[in-house]
Design a protein that fits this description.
single chain; alpha/beta; binds adenosine monophosphate; binds manganese (II) ion
């Protein structure tokens, strides 16, 4: 089992633990290297770093950027970034605006289907962190109109559903560029989660590499064997370094527990082997 986890969330975005709690839990699970990769924000990194120093675990400064590629929403993880670099900080500030406006639009759509106070409650749930669809989902579950977060996404928050807002995220190549300018390495997040054909997925990985991306999550999300194999093929084909991340959000909803990642296929080069 790998003790390195390069994808996790705190309550600076849509995770349920504070950065400090997340780091403590990672350390208790035997993780030696943890990347905190909140959606479009580096706000939790300072607290995570302080906590990491206290429990002898290496905290890798990171972020998960929302982007678009051919109209699909695609996530890019940037590791070893300098969070204060202006090129990156400016892009993240814009994303914060984008998310704030999008939250207003989602709330307006939800109002039309009977949710009166979505914006107010969702803002409260997000606190000073980024507002995400996860917060809207939590609000709708609390309202009693859906069983769980997954059901909310299916009924309200995905394309074609009443609370879905198509969002203009920055272009994939632009996000990669910002990560590089900030001294970081760009990793294509959870490649199997996008609704793409096998051909389009290969094209995505190819474009990602051409645009300056260096890594790909091979062990990601569910950690299912066939997904790992498909990701490994992309890594080999496009000569991308392999990464592994649980995408941990909370102890209630997680596919992979912190510190419980299956190993990378032995022929791949782990991204951390070059650090
Ligand atoms: P956003 O970035 O605001 O669009 O929110 C996306 C987040 O919602 C993802 O990072 C996941 O944490 C969560 N999410 C997306 N789809 C689902 C789903 N089907 N079930 C549960 N959570 C989801
Ligand atoms: Mn999330
Ligand atoms: Mn993601
Ligand atoms: Mn994530």
């Amino acid at each position: 089992m790998s003790t390195i986890d390069l994808h996790s969330h705190s309550n600076a975005s849509d995770g349920s633990l504070t950065p400090q709690e997340l780091v403590a839990q990672a350390a208790a699970a035997g993780i030696t290297h943890l990347a905190l990769t909140d959606h479009d924000t580096t706000q939790g990194l300072a607290e995570a770093q302080t906590a990491a120093t206290g429990c002898n675990i290496e905290l890798i400064p990171a972020v998960e950027i929302s982007t678009q590629w051919r109209g699909h929403s695609v996530h890019v993880v940037g590791v070893h970034i300098k969070p204060t670099h202006p090129a990156l900080a400016m892009a993240l500030a814009e994303l914060q605006q984008t998310r704030a406006q999008r939250a207003e639009q989602i709330a307006e759509l939800l109002r039309r289907v009977g949710f009166a106070d979505a914006l107010e409650v969702t803002r409260r749930l997000a606190g000073d962190g980024m507002i995400t669809r996860t917060h809207f989902a939590q609000y709708i579950v609390q309202s009693g109109r859906a069983r769980n977060v997954k059901a909310v996404f299916e009924r309200f928050l995905t394309p074609g559903k009443p609370g879905y807002v198509a969002t203009r995220w920055p272009e994939l190549a632009d996000a990669i560029d910002r990560i590089r300018q900030a001294g970081g390495q760009a990793i294509l997040a959870h490649p199997q989660r996008y609704k793409l054909s096998a051909t389009a997925r290969r094209e995505l990985a190819g474009h990602f590499k051409e645009a300056g991306g260096v890594g790909i999550e091979v062990v990601a999300g569910t950690g299912h064997g066939p997904d790992i194999q498909s990701n490994a093929e992309l890594a080999r084909r496009f000569d991308l370094l392999a990464s592994a991340g649980s995408d941990f959000h909370s102890n209630e909803h997680c596919w992979l527990k912190l510190g419980r990642l299956p190993p990378l296929p032995a022929d791949l080069v782990p991204i951390w082997s070059r650090w």
